[in-house]
Amino acid sequence: MAAPMFFMVRSVLTVSLRYIKQSKLCGYQYNQKKCMSSYRELKKFYKNASIVTTEGWYEINLDKRKLRTPGGNLFRVPNEALALAVATEWNSQDKVIKRHNMHLTSLCNTALDNPFHKTRDVLTDSIIHFLETDTMCYRLTEPEDLVRFQSQNWDPVINWAKDRYKIDITPTYTIAPPDVPQHTKDTIKRHLLSYSDWALFGYQFAVDSVKSLLIIMALVDKFISVDTAVHLSRLEQEYQVKKWGSVEWYHDIDEYELKTRLASATLFIHWSSENVSVKQKASLGIQNIC
User: From 275's CA, which of 43, 146, 163, 191 has a CA 20 to 30 Å away?
Assistant: First the structure.
């Protein structure tokens, strides 16, 4: 099968498999109209965003108004670093508030509202399911230069994961999903459960952005940088661009957007997991927001 056609077939099957698994796991139907309405541009109605502390939490004030989530909950975060970053997002807005670019604010909203009532088990299971469609686990047998390109770039991360977590990961060279041993899933789940619930929302956001759990594990553990993570997730696309050329502006904008998403998610994960007290404050059970 020619390489371009293989890319297309594999992409369709991978997306279909991932959609079916996520739909069954989360138990809800995706409401596209409602989702898009939450990202409508809004004229800026404030001059300055600032932070205040209340009962150990950090709130965001837009002038004298307290920021609230789309679900109507008071917007508050567990540490100052995250609060300052969110306030910076709001202060960087010009005449129009572009909420679709405010990734840290969106992640905090998701953690506070938990609109689909996801438990820790649901969150970790949905993240682990990406192993069966992980970008780096799908390899080609031709053309030879792409095979080498994949091996040179992806193998170091897979070997790192095997050594770091003592797990078994074997890439597949067909359209069939890779075989992931149960002990590998159990090991990764124990690792994910060591994070706070807020951090898990960030993990899921990051993994969904690059369609690879292994890349995000390496990124969060600081084995690779954000730039490298984006490069690894776009490996086949970069190969095609080198061979056939790029669409003017589109590829650069797409790459920039992906970098901002990953950088935001990584910071969110680390800031949500700074110490035990942060994990306790960011607990879904303690907040009772389910």
Answer: 163
